[in-house]
Structures are given as structure tokens and as C-alpha cells.
Write a sequence for this structure.
């Protein structure tokens, strides 16, 4: 019985240790009516400079004691089309969601993260100072409809990566409660919908294999860009393009995996590297730059051009985001990440990157340099370590309990 109790307590501790906490927040007007209701989990990864001038990454979650900052949150008293939720935590940190109402829909027009580097609990040995960074999001839903997203939505900002998950939210509430209608995010659609793209939109292959479904991991392509001074970019990665278009005034989404027949070209410059990938119906352009001060390189921009099915209202999509801060690593080293990374470009297109290893600038011998793991992979490694340690502790406790019990049972008998 004692062993069973120990097992139960350890298992509960493990589950609590590896699960990400979610919190619920609400914004009320002066009459007490709720206009914003939100439930979500957040993971932050912040790159900052320590006192010894070295770069450091700090990864932490939105703590359970996070709370609504009522003095800066609003139901739109000054501007009825603008509602704001601001969540505060720690020593001067806050996450601000600015909602905008437009054309019978609401959206998180801007997501702003303000953080205080003087808070040594989150940023040990930091130089101090308050920083703020802002990014548009793809969080959008019709009025009188909740927005839900269980999977992680990655939002890359300057020196900050935010992972939103377990999201259920609604702004401009009618009756202070969630509506019955629901809008599901693109990340959840990809993971739950088994839609096969039409064959006319998949590049031809040498064998007659059916096109992959969206839930399949795409082919990991090997790409390189070479200039007059040699190779400037090496990239191993699987790529998936999500497109959303209208058919008879209804939105429809499709997912396309880039096949092994994808062609690639590129260009090398001193401060910028471009990789262009082309299939029969999609072209992708990646732009990498480097920061000489921090000695870091990163993916700054992605451009997508995609031809759409004949049923679509318009025949092609153009989407671009040139303010990214993704796939970042030290010059001379390679960036590696097995966790899927989703890059939002616009409401019409996003790009998913799988099993990536990439290096830009300063490549020696046409081979990858030392690996720098992405924060997501480093966090995922903690789970088996914690579980393994808990199980090892359990085995030790059970063994000790068994030996003590055996010793006591022997003590009850006497030799004749």
C-alpha cells in the first residue's frame, strides 16, 4: 500500500512538472460587463546581453499569478472599435493584446511584450533596462465567435519568440460569456484535417505516388547557395506551405508539401543571402542576414507566390514577411531544430519548417559547423530527463521499502 501511495505522488509530481499552465483573464467595462474573455498558455524565449557582454537565452512560461492590469486594459471606452487586454507578471513584465473590430470580425491587431531585464528571476546577470517589442498576429475570428488554438502558434519578434497554445478567446462579447460558434486556428486544422491537395498542384515525380497528406512530414530537401567565394548557405529542411483562399465567399485552406523535385537557386552577398525554391505551383524566397555586432545570422524574410485552384476567387497569392527574427545562430555555427516551426506571413499564407539544420555565412569546407539547438528542442529534452529521474527515484524508494519490510518480517521469528 505504501508503495502504491509513493507511485501516485511521484506520478502526480511528474505530470505537474511537465504540463504548461493555462490562465484565464477577463476585461470588464465600468458597469461590470465582460468584453474580453481569454484563456491561454504562453512560453517566452528572450535573447539578452549579460554583464560580461555575452548573449544568453532565457525561456520561461507565463506564471500562474499573472493577472489583468485593469488600469491599461479597456473595453473601448474611448474608441469602441478598440479593446485591449494587458496581462502583467513578475517585476514589470506584460503581454498586451490589442483587438480591433473590422468588417464584422475581430482580430489581435498587435501583440506587444514588455519585459524588464532588471528582473534577475527571469534574466540572471542581465545588463538591465526595460524593452518592448510588437508584432502583428494571425489571430482573427468573426464577431460572436470564439477563437480556439490548441497547438503552438509561434510569433517571432525582435530578440523574443512567443509560443501561444491552449488558446480560447473572444473579444466584443455580447453577453459576458463565450459564444457557441467557434473559429479554429490554422495550426489545429493542419494537425486534424486529412485533405489531399489536388494533383494538378503537386510537382510531378518520377514515380506515380499519391500526393502527401498535410499531416505527413514533408520531404527534407538539401539546398545550398554558392558564390564567388564558395558556399554561403547550407540548408536541410522540410517545407510546408499553408494557403487560405475564398471560394464563393467561403474561406478554404490547403496545405502543400514541397517535394523532392523542388528546384533551388540563390545569391551570396556580404550582408545578405537569398535562397529561391520553386515547384510547379509555388515559389518561396528566403532572405538571411547577419548582425556584425552580435555575430548572429538569422532568417529575416520569406516571400510566397502560389497559384490557386481554378475554383478560387483569385488565381494566385502573394504573401511576404520581411521582419522575421527566426532560425538564429552564431556565425560559424549551424542552427538545428527537429520541432516544427510555423512562420506566419499573412492571413493568406504561412510556412511550416520541419527537421531543419541550416547555416549561413562563414561556412568552412562545405560542411555544417558546430550545432546550436533551438530553444524548443532543448525544452523538449527536459521532459524525458524529468520522467527518467522520477522513475529512478521510484525504483530506489520501492527497493528500500522492500528491504525494510523484509528485515522486519525476519525479526518476528526466532531460531529453534
Amino acid at each position: 500500500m505504501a508503495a502504491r501511495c509513493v507511485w501516485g505522488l511521484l506520478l502526480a509530481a511528474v505530470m505537474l512538472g511537465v504540463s504548461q499552465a493555462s490562465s484565464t483573464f477577463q476585461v470588464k467595462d465600468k458597469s461590470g460587463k465582460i468584453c474580453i474573455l481569454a484563456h491561454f498558455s504562453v512560453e517566452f524565449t528572450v535573447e539578452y546581453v549579460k554583464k560580461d557582454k555575452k548573449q544568453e537565452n532565457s525561456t520561461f512560461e507565463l506564471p500562474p499569478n499573472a493577472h489583468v492590469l485593469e488600469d491599461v486594459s479597456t473595453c473601448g471606452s474611448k474608441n469602441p472599435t478598440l479593446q485591449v487586454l494587458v496581462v502583467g507578471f513578475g517585476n514589470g513584465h506584460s503581454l498586451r493584446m490589442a483587438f480591433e473590430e473590422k468588417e464584422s470580425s475581430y482580430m489581435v491587431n498587435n501583440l506587444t511584450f514588455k519585459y524588464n531585464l532588471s528582473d534577475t528571476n527571469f534574466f540572471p546577470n542581465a545588463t538591465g533596462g526595460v524593452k518592448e517589442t510588437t508584432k502583428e498576429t494571425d489571430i482573427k475570428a468573426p464577431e460572436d465567435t470564439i477563437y480556439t488554438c490548441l497547438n503552438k502558434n509561434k510569433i517571432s519578434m525582435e530578440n523574443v519568440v512567443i509560443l501561444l497554445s491552449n488558446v480560447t478567446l473572444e473579444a466584443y462579447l455580447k453577453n459576458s460569456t463565450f459564444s457557441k460558434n467557434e473559429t479554429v486556428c490554422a495550426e489545429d486544422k493542419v494537425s486534424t484535417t486529412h485533405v489531399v491537395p489536388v494533383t494538378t498542384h503537386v510537382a510531378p515525380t518520377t514515380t506515380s505516388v499519391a500526393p502527401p497528406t498535410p499531416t505527413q512530414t514533408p520531404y527534407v530537401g538539401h539546398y545550398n547557395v554558392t558564390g564567388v567565394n564558395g558556399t554561403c548557405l547550407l540548408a536541410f529542411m522540410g517545407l510546408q506551405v499553408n494557403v487560405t483562399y475564398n471560394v464563393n465567399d467561403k474561406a478554404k485552406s490547403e496545405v502543400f508539401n514541397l517535394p523532392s523535385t523542388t528546384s533551388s537557386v540563390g545569391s551570396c552577398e556580404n550582408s545578405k543571402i537569398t535562397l529561391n525554391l520553386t515547384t510547379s505551383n509555388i515559389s518561396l524566397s528566403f532572405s538571411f542576414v547577419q548582425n556584425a555586432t552580435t555575430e548572429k545570422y538569422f532568417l529575416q524574410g520569406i516571400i510566397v507566390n502560389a497559384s490557386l485552384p481554378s475554383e478560387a476567387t483569385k488565381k494566385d497569392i502573394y504573401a511576404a514577411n520581411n521582419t522575421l527574427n527566426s532560425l538564429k545562430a552564431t556565425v560559424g555555427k549551424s542552427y538545428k531544430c527537429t520541432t516544427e516551426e510555423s512562420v506566419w506571413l499573412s492571413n493568406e499564407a504561412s510556412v511550416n519548417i520541419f527537421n531543419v539544420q541550416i547555416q549561413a555565412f562563414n561556412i568552412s569546407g562545405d560542411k555544417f559547423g558546430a550545432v546550436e539547438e533551438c530553444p524548443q528542442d532543448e525544452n523538449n529534452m527536459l521532459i524525458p530527463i524529468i520522467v527518467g529521474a522520477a522513475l529512478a527515484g521510484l525504483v530506489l524508494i520501492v527497493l528500500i521499502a522492500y528491504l525494510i519490510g523484509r528485515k522486519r518480517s525476519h525479526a518476528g521469528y526466532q531460531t529453534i
In short: The two ends are 33 Å apart (CA to CA). The longest strand covers residues 230-247.
